[in-house]
Amino acid sequence: MGGVRLEKNSTIGDYHVNEGAVIELRIQIGRDSPFVPPPPATMKIHVKMLSGITHSFVFGPLLTVSTIQNAIQLKTGVHPEDQLLIVGGRQMEGHRTLGFYQLKDGATLQLELRQPRRHRDSVPRGTFEEPAMVAELKTRATTIRKSMIKINQLHKAAGGDLQDMTKLVQWMNRKEKHANEIIKTMGEFCMCQRVERRKFDDEDFYVAAFKAHHDVMHAARETKKSADFATANTLDEDLKKLFAMYQVHQMKTSCDSNISLTDLASCQSSVLICIRAT
Predict the structure, then answer these.
(1) Of 36, 55, 208, 244, which has the fewest Cβ atoms less than 10 A away?
(2) Domain-located, residue 12
(3) Where is the Ubiquitin-like domain (predicted)?
């Protein structure tokens, strides 16, 4: 700084450094210390699941293995404590950095599961890609709720008026029609064509997936029998849980050179994730 070399046994205060001062960094390479190129800023890591599905992530080499495990949980629902990450036949430790294992860009990790598992009540996330079906189910649930609103309004205003009673019956029929379509989609498409054992990493996820679909069917059936908004609320909640299996979750943050020390912890757990199921 200012042409003066800073000694490592001195403090910054010894050099009267002011706020905003610039310190020049020079790399000294000795004869016995060959130059080692720095690791890449980011690298793509592939994680192969037991089901054969491979997920891709982009990480920095200074992030820890636990960061990968957190990202895997976001994508698949598998708790980090249930995960065993294997590279080259060696189990990776959560507190180690990716650079410790000398991973290269494009490296593939094998994900195995510990016993006993802890995600028995969770649904597997992002297992299927059916955006059109998700949109259709949302529309049908909205129509059911709208029908209930109209039914309650017409019932209060009818007062024996046949025209209003006719409209009320029409809305009841519309509500029942959309509930039947939801049940049909769950049974004939989802449970018959999508929920197969080979598509899930373990039996727990398979059972949880079946239960989530059945809960939606049961909730839709309850909306057929009632104009109570509580049944519509239950249907919305069950659909929200179901959609976790049909929607790919993406999280994007940046860990750049301007990050402060107070943000380091959040940067450690927040990574740039590029998720693609193959």
Answers:
(1) 36
(2) no
(3) 43-118
